[in-house]
Structure prediction request, 66 residues.
Amino acid sequence: MNEPTTPDRYWTIAEVADHLRVSRMTVYRLADSGAFPGTIRVGRAYRIPGSGLQAYLAASTIEATP
Prediction:
């Protein structure tokens, strides 16, 4: 999935896992730990806002050293 992370879109766990190229379990753990600001639960399912995904990526970015 190569869509840009737009702040007004809510992502499913599977979509975030595909976008980040990690397992769904990793995304569940991150969501449980509060890594994605604004995450909501709809029944038993999580929905992660694009703004929360952007915030996580910004906080997780490191600069490469030459």
User: Anything to note?
Assistant: The first helix runs from residue 13 to 20.
